[in-house]
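Worked Example 4.2. Read the sequence first, then its C-alpha cells.
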Amino acid sequence: MLGCGSCSAAGLSVLLHAVLSVTGAVRGTVFTPHFLVQVHAGGDGDAQQLAAELGFSSARKLPFGEELFHFYPSDAHQTRRRRSLGLQQRLEKDCRVKNVVQQEGFIRKKRGYRKINDLEAKINDPLFTNQWYLINTGQANGVAGLDLNVAEAWHLGYTGTGVTIAIMDDGIDYLHPDLASNYNAAASFDYSSNDPYPYPRYTNNWFNSHGTRCAGEVSAAANNICGVGVAYNSKVAGIRMLDQPFMTDIIEASSISHMPQVIDIYSASWGPTDDGKTVDGPRELTLQAMADGVNKGRGGKGSIYVWASGDGGSYDDCNCDGYASSMWTISINSAINDGRTALYDESCSSTLASTFSNGRTRDPEAGVATTDLYGNCTLRHSGTSAAAPEAAGVFALALEANPHLTWRDLQHLTVLTSKRNQLHDEVHQWHCNGVGLEFNHLFGYGVLDAGSMVKMAEEWKTVPERYHCVAGSVQESHKIPPEGKVTLTITTDACQGKDNFVRYLEHVQAVMTVNATRRGDLTINMTSPMGTCSILLSRRPRDVDAKVGFDKWPFMTTHTWGEDPRGSWVLEVGLVGDQPQEGIVREWTLMLHGTQMAPYIDQVVQDYQSKLAMSKKQELEGELDEALDQSLESLLSRN
C-alpha cells in the first residue's frame, strides 16, 4: 500500500507493472468478465478492434497509466468462479497486447442504517423545517443549536455556486425536480453500464435510492418540492458505480479519477462490508487514482475525497477500512439530534470530523430529509451515508468562499473550525492534544461549522509544503502476552537536519504487521511525545481471523495534528477478550506527515499584531482620557 501523499512517475510505473503481473487467485476466487488491457504505444485503434473481435462491448481508455484500456463485457452482471482462461490466453498471445489482467470481484457496501421503520413517503410540501441538521430549533425533540451552522454561511452569500460535487454511488435520479436544475450531465457517467446516463436501475424495494438521497443533501435546489441542499446552488454529478454484483479495481479507480479538472469534490458513502470482521481497502489502481487526484486534480490543488466512516457500530473499527482511514480522504462520522453518537457509528483515530444523521429515536422526523427516487421525498435517509454528503456540501461552501483551497487546506480548516458544540458520548470523552486542539475518538474534531469555515476560508493562506518522514522501525518480533500487553518505543528526531524534516504534524501512520489467534481481540494504542494517546485499534468481537492478521496495515491517527513529533512514541499492543489468546507483533514502522514551517504562522502574527495595535490604541485612549480629565480639573479649579 502506498504510504505518502505523492507518487512519482517511476513509482507509478513500478506499481502498474505489479498490478498487471499479479494473479487474482491470490486474493479470491470470484472473477468478473472485465479485463485490464495494456496495448503497445499508439494502439488506441487496435484496442477497439481487438475488443470487437473478442466479443467485448467496448474498450474504454483509462485516464491513468499508459495505454491502459478497460475491456467492458456486453453483460455487466455476469460473474464466474474461475478465470476466463480462453480470453486471457487469446489476449496475452495477441501481438497488439502488452499486458492483461482479468478483474477480481470484491464487495463494496452502501452505508445506511435501515432498521428504523424504513417507510418511504411522497411528500408534496417543502421539508425545510424538518431539516434540523441545517437549522436546529429543537424540532423532533432535538437540541436547539446543534446543527451545521449553514445559516451563517448562506447569510454571507455562499450557496455552492461554481462548485461541482460527484456522488459516487448507485446512480442519481437526475430528473427529480429538486435535482434537475443543478445536475451536471457533462461531468456524469455510468461505470456500471458503461454509458453517460447514471440513472438508478429499478428494483421493487427501491434499493437503488441511495445515491439520489445523498445527492439531495448536497445540491437540492431551493424552493422546490422537498428540502434544500447544504450547497443548494452547487452542481451535482452522478457517478454510478455500485450497482453490479462485485466491485472491481478498474471501476473504483475510474470513478475516483472521473473528470478531476471539472469535479471538485467526490462524496462516497460506501466501503468494505461493515460486519466487524473485514479488513479491506483500495486496491492498487484505486490507490494510484487517489494519488493522482490529490496531486493533479483541480489544477494541482487536489481533488477532495469525502468518505463515510462506516456503520459497523461498536463491533467494528474504521481504521480497518482503508478508504476511511486514508490520509487522502476526509473521513466523516455522524451524530444524532441530541448530540449523542448513533448506535451504528464506528470509532477510530482517523475520523476527522462529524455531521448528522438519524439514530436512537423512533421519531419519524428525526431522520435526514432529502430527495428520493422518481420525484419523491423522504424523511428517513440515515447512517454515515447521510453524514458524508452533508460534509461535501459544507466543503462546497468553503470552496466557493475560496476556490484556491487545496485538499490539505480543507483538512486544516476542518480541524480548526469544527466544534464540540453539544456532542457527547458515554464512553469516549473529549481530550486536548499537545497543542490544545480538542478531539474525540468518535467525533474527530467535532461537528462541521459552515459559518466558521467559510469565514476562515475567505482569508486563508495555503499551508506550507508537506513532507514525509520514516521516523523509525521495529523489525524484531515481540510476543503479546495472553493477558497483558507488549510495549514498544521509537525515539525519533523526525528527520531533523534532512530535507524531509517534519516539525508540525498532520497525519501519523503506524504501519504494522501483527498476528493473533483471534484478530478481533487485538487492541493498539499509541502515545505521542507530547502525551496524546490515539486508539489505533479497538476490540472487534466478531473478528475471528487467526491466519491473515494485519500485513503492513497503515493504522492512521489525526489526533496529534499540529504537534511536534520529536521524541519517544510509545506503542501498546494487547489482547482482550473472553478467552486467553496469543499474538505477535512482527513489524512497526512509524510514518510522519506534516510541515516544516508552522502552518498558521502568518495568521498568528496577524492576530498578534492586531491585538498589539488594539492594546496600543487603548493605551493611547487611556492617556488621552487622563489628559482630558486633568485639563477639566484645571478649568474647574480656575472657576
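Now turn to a second chain, presented in exactly the same format:
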Amino acid sequence: MSAETANDIRFTDLALSEPLLRALADVGYESPSPIQAATIPPLLAGRDVLGQAQTGTGKTAAFALPILNQLEPAARKPQALVLAPTRELAIQVAEAFHKYARHLPGFHVLPVYGGQGYGPQLSALKRGVHVVVGTPGRVIDHLERGSLDLSELRCLVLDEADEMLRMGFIDDVEAVLKKTPETRQVALFSATMPQQIRRIAQTYLKDPVEIAIKSSTTTAKNIRQRYWMVSGVNKLDALTRILEAEPFDGMLVFARTKLGTQELADKLAARGLSAAAIHGDVEQKQREKLVQSLKDGRVDILVATDVAARGLDVERVSHVLNYDIPYDTESYVHRIGRTGRAGRSGEAILFVAPRERGMLGAIERATRQKIEPMELPSVETVNERRVAKFLERIGSGLESGQIGLFRDLIERYEREHNVPAVEIAAALAGLLQGDTPLLLEPPRERPRPAPERGERAERGERHPARGDARPAERPQKPRAPRDQGPRAPETGMETFRIEVGHRHGVQPGNIVGAIANEADLESRYIGRIDIRDDHSLVDLPEGMPRELMEHLKRVRVAGQQLSLRRAEAGDTDGPPRGKRPFAGPPRGKPAGRPKPGKR
C-alpha cells in the first residue's frame, strides 16, 4: 500500500471498535500512517504479519489497536505479549496501550524489564493483566518462575527484532516463541531483515502478510533543522522567547492534539502574539479564513494538528516549530515541508523532552540529516527585541500625522502640573503597556544548560532498583598501557568475570546491551570489556547491590548464563583477547531511568 493511498484512509474505515475510535479522537488522530493502514486489516483478520518499517513510522499503534480490538475483558491471563529490546521501548509501548485503551474499562497492561523489583510485577501478574510488554531476559525469568502464564496467549509481537538480534537477545526470543501456544498470532517488525530474523519468520510465522514501508523521509536541504532539549525551562516560556527573538514572517506551530492547539493558541494570544488554532473541529469555511489571514499577515502564528495542516501551502511561512514531537518520522517530514517551499530557505525547530531523545534519533536516522541543537534566546536578547519593537511603535505613531490633538493635551498638562513632557510620555507608555512587564527579569541564578544528547537531565536521581547505592565520582585517570601485566579496573570501578567468551561467539555489544538493560545502567557507565576464550572480564561501577548481582548471574548472552562474579587474581592475568574501548569517565553519577506511571 502506498503512502498516498494510506493518506486517503481514516481510522473509521478500519473496522475498529467505538471505544478505540473515541480514544484516537481524544488524542487528535484521524488518519492512519502507511504502516498502520497496511497492518491493521490483516491483524484484525487473524493473519500473521512480517513488517519491515523504521522506528518512528507509527508501528506501535499498528499492532496495539488490533490487539485491543479483540481483547476479552473478563480474562485474567495475558492475551498478548510484546517483546521489546530495551526497557525504554517497553515503557513507551505500555504507555501507548494505556492511551489507546482509555475507554476500555478494566484494561491492564504490565511492562516487565530488568532493573525493576520483581514484587510489583509478580503482584500485577497475580491480579491479572491483559497485555504484557517486556524485555526478553525478564520475560524468560517470569516464565521460569512460573509467574507468567502464556497458555491463553492470542498474539505475540516482536518489536524491533533486528535490534534484539544486535543486542544478543535472539536466543531468548526463540525460547519465548517455543513457550507460546501453537494457535497464537505473530507480528514481527524489524527495520532490516538480516538472515537470522528471516529464519525466525520462516520458522514461527504461518503464511504471513509481508509489509514493507519505504518512508518518504527526505527533507529539503534548504530547511535548517534545530532542536531545543526542553529541560528546566517551561515549553511555553521557551516558545515565547523564540517567537520574540527569532526573526520570522509567518509560523506554523504543531501540537499533538486538537485541545492542545486551542489551548496553546489562546495562551500565545494572551501574551500579545497574533495566533490562532486550526484543527479537525474547525469548519472548512473558518479554516479557509484562518489560512487567508496567515497569508495576508493578519495572523502571524497558526497552531495546528497534522491533519489540519495537510496540504497547507503559504509562501509566508518561514518557520515550522514542533511544540510536540511527532510520533512518526513521516509526520515530521510532512510538518517541516510546510516551509522552504519553491526553493526558498526555511527554518524548522523541534522541542524534545529528555525522554523523547530516542524519537529524535529515529528522525535523524530516517531523514539521514543531523538536527543541530539550538540555544534558547537569552533574556537580554528578548529584552533588546522588545525595546526595539516598542521604539518602532513610537516611530509609527509619529509618522501617522494624527498626533496634533495629543500634543496639545500634553503641553497643557505640562503647563498646569509643572511636569516635564518626558515624564508624561513615560506615564502614557506605562498605561499603554498595561500589566504585562515590558522586560523579562533576568534569572536569579544561572540555569543549568540542557543536557547533551546521551546525558540524563537529572544526574542525582535515585536509582529505582538500587536505592542510594551509587558508584563514586571517577576522576580523569590516564589508562595503563596494555602490556603492564595484570588488568586493573578504572577508579570507581570493579572488575567482574562472566562465563561467556570467544568460543560462544559473543561480541562486546552483546555484553553491553544485556547488562545495560538488566542492570538499568546506561552503557557509558560500563567500562572495559576483555573477551577471553571461555570467559570475559567487564568493569562495572563499585557498590553493586547484592540483589542486582544475583539477578545478573541469571542473565543470558549468546545463549549462556553470565554467572557474574567478582574477578579474582587469576582471572585478570594475561593480555586481553578483545576489548571495548573505554571512552573516559562520565561527567557525574549514573542515574536510574524513570519508572513507568501507575496504570
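Notes for the reader: The radius of gyration is 29 Å. The longest helix spans residues 379-399.
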